[in-house]
Amino acid sequence: MRTRDFLEWPFFTPAHRDLAERVDAWAAQRFAGHGDTGGHPEDRDSVDAACKQLVRDLGRAGWTRYSVPWQTEGTANATPAFDVRALALIRETLAWYDGLADFAFAMQGLGSGAITLAGSPEIKQRYLPRVAAGEAIAAFALSEPDAGSDVAAIKCSARRDGDSYVLDGEKTWISNGGIADFYCVFARTSPAEFRPDGSVTARGISAFVVDANTPGFSIAKRIDVIAPHPLATLAFTGCRIPAANRLGAEGEGFKLAMRTLDIFRTSVAGAALGFAQRALDEALKQSLTRPMFGKTLADLQLTQAALADMATEIDAARLQTYRAAWLRDRGDTVTQQVAMAKMSATESAQRAIDRAVQIFGGRGVVHGETVERLYRDIRALRIYEGATEVQKLIIARELLNTARKV
After folding, report:
1. Strand bridging mode 205-211 / 291-292
2. What's the whole-number average pLDDT of the chain?
3. CA atoms of 406 and 396, how far apart (whole Å)
4. Alpha helix (H) ranges present in 134-252?
């Protein structure tokens, strides 16, 4: 019942189509037999172990090199190019099969992206080949208890002391927290500057690599969420790291964080498409086989209307997602298009999955059913890497800036 005819759209090259088919074939074999349970026990230790294994498997299969575009020859002093269409295609495919696999793939890229973009040749060589091979787990440490959407408000500090920096503070909602081998951490290297309205400017933030075994670094607490994955609050107490572990110039960390998020935000939309498509496919199967009033659920017009809404919204979101990815790969400025894609794909996926749960009725809310798992999987995507409300502000800002120039 699942179709992949969108791969014929002109957004994709033959290489993209071949990649999508190869990833799909690998995932079908890797997750065969998972059935409706999703294949993962949900206690913390089991989730940690499953995530670590998925990182290894993705690395061995060669998929992680798309989220960590590192080559040992010829790129030591250059910034490798990310293929955003490939990232979105891989995430859509993995999300259709397994939400934790999508998470593991995405975090290897997001967690090491700042190194790829701004690390010294030595730092790149030390970390990226191991991440690409699935031999090291990466994490992106930006958010704080009082600085989520307002990234500039971070308080974690990094004080220069000779050939070292000393970090103090806290990070929270950090994906891969507790299992990562290293963290790309964003901290203040100069005091916060305030605007007249009380908001904080983005100046004075720098980025660093902190190994998980560094003295002064600790996991303050683990965080359990509705769709289990490794998540934690991090603590830095006199955490001393070499100055060489800084990524890019001092004070350029905010721009580096935004560059990293800009690359991977479109792929969030790809993951949402995978979840939504799986929900539609499950709803179609259920509606065709579920007896209802002497017919099947599919014979009811309200069911048909729900399926039509799901399919139309998914198709529209997919068009926006791969348009944004295509434009990004072409080198265009696509801030507005990426925000639209991220908002459209995640919001429409939430609606599609909710309709699928409704079509399943009582079964839809049974823990472990595919649509119940999808219902939990999708919710975080509307928040992380820029909440829907932030995307609306970005879209409006871009529209108004364009209008003012006319």
Report:
1. unpaired
2. 93
3. 16
4. none
Q: Report the distance separating Cα 367 and Cα 387, nearest Å.
A: 27
Q: pLDDT tens for residues 298-355?
A: 999 999 999 999 999 999 999 999 999 999 999 998 999 999 999 999 999 999 999 9
Give Cα separations from 151 to 176, 188, 200, 205, 258 (angstroms): 19, 11, 9, 10, 10
Those residues whose C-beta lies under 8 Å from the C-beta of residue 20, and which sit 6 or more positions away, are 4, 7, 12, 89, 93
Q: Which residues contact 389 (CB under 8 A, 6 or more apart)?
A: 149
- Are 119 and 253 in contact by the 8 Å Cβ rule? The answer is no
- The span from the CA of 115 to the CA of 111, in Å, is 9
d(CA 122, CA 140): 20
Say how many Å lie between the first and final Cα of the chain, rounded. 48
Q: Which amino acid is at 377?
A: D
- Tell me the backbone φ, ψ of residue 3, rounded to 5 degrees: -115, 155
Give percent of the chain with pLDDT exceeding 90: 86
pLDDT at 73: 42
Please state, as a whole number, how many other Cβ atoms lie within 10 Å of the Cβ of residue 295. Answer: 10
Q: Strand 217-222 and strand 157-161: pairing?
A: unpaired
Amino acid residing at 330: R
Catalytic residue numbers read: 385
CA distance 76 to 65: 16
CA distance 253 to 205: 5
Distance CA 332, CA 180 (A): 33
Q: What integer pLDDT is reported at residue 322 of this predicted model?
A: 98
Task: Find the angle CA(168)-CA(149)-CA(386) to the nearest 5 degrees.
Answer: 125
pLDDT at 132 over 50: yes
DSSP code, position 4: -
Cα atoms found within 13 Å of the Cα of residue 315, Cβ hemisphere only = 11
Percent of the chain with pLDDT over 70: 96
Bridge partners, 194 (sequence order): 200
> Which one, of 59, 85, 57, lies nearest residue 70 by Cα?
59
Using DSSP's 3-state secondary structure scheme, residue 61 falls into: helix
Collapsing DSSP to helix, strand or coil, 209 comes out as strand
Is pLDDT above 90 for 288? yes
CA dist 96 and 107 (Å) reads 17
Please give the pLDDT value at position 38.
52
* CA pair distance 289, 282, nearest whole angstrom: 11
